[in-house]
Amino acid sequence: MTALDDTHRLAPYLDRLRELPFVRHLDVAWEPGLPPPRPDAVVKLRTPRRTFTLALEVKRTYLDQVLTNAIIAEHRAMLERHRLPLLLAARYIPPPTGERLAEAGVNFVDRPGNVHLALGDDHHVLLLGRREPAREPTARRVGPALVQLLFALLAEPAAAAWPIRPLAEAAGIGKTAAATGRERLVRLGILAGGRRRPCRVVDHDRLVDEFLGGYANVLRPHLLIGRFRTTERDPDRLIRGVAAAAERAEVPVALTGSAGAYALDRFYRGEEITLLVGAFTPALQRSLRLVPDREGPVTLLRAFGTRWAWRATGGVTVAHPWLIYAELLCQGDPRGLEAAEQMRHNYLTGV
């Protein structure tokens, strides 16, 4: 576990669990030796009757809808592959998020003392409503440029050490934004280095969390061109038509979200088709026969940088797996979360 494999840092969460009357002892194994998906650690929680084993996941970022979706998907994968329920340790879990996690069966504990533990038929506790201490008023807001930089570092971890110009080009941002963004990530502990030392990623888990939260709340609204409907109802013909029209217009496009995941694995096809496009003009819209519609099934997002398109498969181009994964988590339906976890397992484990 990067930068967190220290029981001292976990102490505030363990102390909250020890406050529960049925908890007799807690042990933490930081190197559980499990195949992917690997938890940050394994916790053995002893009660008066028996000992329960839980897969620990620690989050230092604040939980939004997308991160909550990712945690629920990870919990299901842990149960399926390791038969271990998840125990989430987070800074703060507000009541609506706690209710959703508890409904999905996810155990959790936060610093203020909000707790959900479901230990078989032995013990079940849900404590919500304890408030978080006031946040620092000086905390800077995350902008689209920083989230694009986070994606570039996920897609190409070696880019952390690149000169500013190619790093900025990979992220699709200005050189000043790339330089200040990299400095900020060093201060956050996501990168290490700077000055005369090459930068490198040292906290990959937090890099992922910051990107996922930033994608949903900041980057995706910034990239959104619009939603559309079309006369073509068959998704395969629609996708082939989009690819052909984009090729004629010499505009690169890539499938993301459930459409991109289906093109790669044929696992799940949702009702929506989301595409990243290199450019969007009225001529291209006419060629695609798209009509603006806020409830339409086709969503267009503006592409950025140089790493957004990943590979061609079945005559279409798909977006980078990190973008597909983030988009699936935004969609949030149960089958979409299964597809997201499969995407993470097949393409993003160990990245």
Estimated helix fraction: 40-55%
Determine the strand fraction and express it as a percent band.
Answer: 15-25%
Strand order of the largest sheet: 1-2-3-4-5-6-7
Low-confidence spans: pLDDT under 50, at least 5 residues?
Answer: 1-5
Radius of gyration equals 22 Å
Tally of contiguous helical segments: 12
Order of helices and strands: HEEEHEHEEEHHHEEHEHEHEHEEEEHH
Tertiary shape: globular
Biggest sheet architecture: 7 strands, mixed
Tally the beta strands: 16
Q: Between the first and last Cα atoms, what is the distance in angstroms?
A: 14 Å
What structural class is derived from the secondary structure elements? alpha+beta
Integer average pLDDT? 89
Q: What this model shows, in words?
A:
- By secondary structure, this protein is α+β, with helices and mostly antiparallel strands.
- The chain is 42% helix and 23% strand.
- It contains twelve helices and 16 strands.
- It has helices at residues 7-18, 65-82, 95-103, 144-155, 164-171, 175-188, 204-223, 235-248, 257-265, 282-288, 321-331, 334-348, and strands spanning 25-29, 41-46, 51-59, 86-90, 107-110, 115-119, 123-127, 191-194, 197-201, 224-230, 253-256, 273-277, 290-292, 298-302, 309-313, 316-319.
- The strands form four sheets. The protein has a seven-stranded mixed beta sheet with strand order 1-2-3-4-5-6-7, with helices on both faces. The protein has a five-stranded mixed beta sheet with strand order 11-12-14-10-13.
- β6 and β7 form a beta hairpin.
- α4 crosses α7.
- It is globular and about 70 Å long.
